[in-house]
Fold:
Amino acid sequence: MFDGYTVIQYIIQAIRRIIKRYKMGNCAIVLAGGEGKRMKSDKPKTLSEVLGKPMLLWVISALKNAGIDDICVVKGFKKECIEQFISTLDFPIESVFQSERLGTGHAVMMAKDFLKSHSGNVVILNGDAPFMSSDTIKKSLCQHADSGCAATVITAKVDDPTGYGRIVRDENGQLKAIVEQKDADEEILKINEVNSGGFWFNCELLLSVLDRIKSDNKAKEYYLPDAIKLLLSDGRKIGAYTAECSDTVLGANDPSQLEELNEIARARGYSC
Structure:
């Protein structure tokens, strides 16, 4: 015969085993595999610094401040540099390796096992977008969760949308499509709401379309926004959260753009 205390302890241990095996709540994947050839640096682009701190640290800090502790970093170019960086943190971070840089969708495919071990929602962010704030992450999650969407795109309205994917909404304000610059007609090019590169997904629904992303494009790469197209074609509801600050979309591809980020951070009083 088991006494009440023993039964309770058994139940607690069982629950802990279930949670360990199938993590509940929200998690994050940070894409940090890029080489950044134009940076003229011998380290991964995401380790380039803004105000003396790697851009990757800015993104991870924003996630932590938003209450998201379960984080997976996708490493690629000079993975040992990313591993060394992770080893300096005083909290655990998972990482996976993308041996070939075949697009953002392919990077997320490398984290498939991480996704499979979670329920709830996952936010996917670029590791070289240091001004993605914890406030934007939290507010976009609230909208995503309250709306019951399969995915929510984090967007921003900018003065100059050149180079960004445009957010096309229907007459009711619902997201209809993300159209890349090269595919946009004159009317779509006038749109100033753009894709930040940040997405919330329901983990299970993302997994349902991830392997269906194709590389039938000129670059032969797998693009994460195609997951949005597939979910829409499956009849799923997709949301779009517009960040309050347009700096959310900013990144750096070369030393001059990196210096611009530093100047913006100093002028705005941003900190990591």
Q: What stands out?
A: Residues 19-23 have pLDDT under 50 and may be disordered. The longest strand covers residues 193-202. Residues 25-268 form a domain with the Spore Coat Polysaccharide Biosynthesis Protein SpsA; Chain A fold (CATH 3.90.550.10).
